[in-house]
Amino acid sequence: MRFERPAMGCQFEVLLNADQAKEASESALEALELVEFLEGKLSLYRNDSDLCRLNRRAATGPQVVDEDVWPLLAFAEQLYRETEGAFDITMSPLSRLWGFHRREGRLPTDREITETLERVGMHHVRLDPDNRTVEFLTPGVELSFAALGKGYALDKCDMLLASMGCRNYLLHGGYSSILGRGRRLAAASPGDGWSIALRDPDRAECRLGRLILRDVAVGTSGLANQSFVHRGRRYGHLLDPRTGRPVEGLVSVTAVAPDAMRADALSTAFFVLGPERTAAYCAEHPDVGAVLVLPGGGPGRREVEVIGAASRYWIEDE
What we know:
Layout: E1 2-7, E2 10-16, H1 21-42, H2 50-57, E3 63-64, H3 70-82, H4 92-97, H5 110-117, E4 125-128, E5 133-136, H6 149-163, E6 169-173, E7 177-181, E8 194-200, E9 203-213, E10 216-222, E11 227-230, E12 233-236, E13 239-240, E14 245-246, E15 252-257, H7 260-284, E16 289-295, E17 302-308, E18 314-316
Antiparallel strand pairs: 1-2, 2-6, 3-5, 4-5, 6-7, 7-10, 8-9, 9-18, 10-15, 11-12, 13-14, 15-16, 16-17
């Protein structure tokens, strides 16, 4: 049984086993209402959202942050440090500069990139956990939860469903952020969990393998949905916040983590970090992993690299 609602620029869904639909349908609908509530706090595209108000006021002094917003800020600052700036929620000005904010790609000048980088970086943001406040130390700084907001919403839904006695379900936001709990009770579902296909981002009919999810989340980042071509060169929307330029070398990254917010954010961080530094991060954090899709040795060919905890859930297609 499938329950769905549009939110955060995509379709959120709750999937339940048919035998529990009668008991859990009310819980599923309540979870989807929670997503809409969170969008009102986290959206960069609603002028009355908590995030937009924060972006307007935080350069004037410390602003008290809502309890639903603070966990994202605290986690983002932690991951910024752990990845040495590869993950950064202050990079909206860069996305806007490249035209990705409105899906209208443009090639900026080197000078424009340099000037924009002057207001990008979490070192421009001061968080005070004791008073739960945030302050921008540089005018023009802007926060965005695009790289972790959907995952956070799934985690909140997960907590709600669990508190209401649900045990077996799959949650996703736009198929890029997915969380699986318990089992899918169907003969077509292999293994002991929820089967998720990993496809070639440029050829949806080409399946590269599967992840069997049980009590784990995945987040996927890739270039298929947002990119533009200039003079024969493709520029993707995933930017390195340290250089201000699009990341090259990977086709997609699927991160695996115990919670959806972390998986969502790590898929972006790993895309920027690349294979070697992603492997090093996973070695230091044994509960996370990644499935990297890289260009293969010829046109249309792909190579798949499975790192860390992802190997526990990965099944390669024959």
